Amino acid sequence: MDTVEELTGYFYAGRTNLKASELFFVILCEKFVEQFGSGIADFGAVFALLIGKNDQVTRAKPRDALKGTSRASKAVRNYMNKSSLPKHFPGNIKLPTIIGGYTPRTIKIRYVSKISTFVGRTIPVVGWVILANDISQIIYETTKAYNRVARGKDKVW
Predict the structure, then answer these.
(1) Helix/strand/coil (H, E, C) string of the chain?
(2) pTM for the full predicted model
(3) Measuring CA to CA, how many Å separate 117 from each of 42, 48, 61?
(4) Which domain holds residue 136?
């Protein structure tokens, strides 16, 4: 590090005179592009979220049920009804599924015994897990790279 860098701030990726917060933002953008610019899994996650959104009209439901159904649920139920596969889990066990959740107060857990219902409701959950993994990796890699460049009191931890 030379005198100019000490006086004017940080130098990173061809940018000069960066404040600590600007340096963190530049590294965050770089790591974001690295993470999302390389994967079919990210496309799959967004696709799973879109087809898992319960915005399709459906039959009348009980009063406490969430309105609508998802494209994923419709497709899986249609496929299972046409196939000769079993419709229920063996032993009629019930597995938990998550419904709602596009705002946190609407999340509900329901137990289901039908395979098609379980699969249809699990598809968007897989999308959220993939995206949460991506975000945690971006934050970790950003913090690690920032702390390598930052000086003294500017380090995150």
Answers:
(1) CCHHHHHHCEEECCEEEECHHHHHHHHHHHHHHHHHCCCHHHHHHHHHHHHHCCCECCCCCCCCCCCCECHHHHHHHHHHHHCCCCCECHHHCCEEEEECCCCHHHCEEEEECEHHHHHHHHHHHHHHHHHHHHHHHHHHHHHHHHHHHCCHHHCCC
(2) 0.73
(3) 24, 15, 15
(4) 3-154
Q: Express each pLDDT in 26-39 by its tens digit.
A: 999 999 988 887 67
Query: What is the count of structural domains for the chain?
Result: 1
Q: How far apart are CA 120 and CA 73, in angstroms?
A: 4
CA distance 114 to 80: 10
Percent of the chain past pLDDT 90, that is, above it, reads: 16
Kindly state the tokens that stand for 17: 């005179």
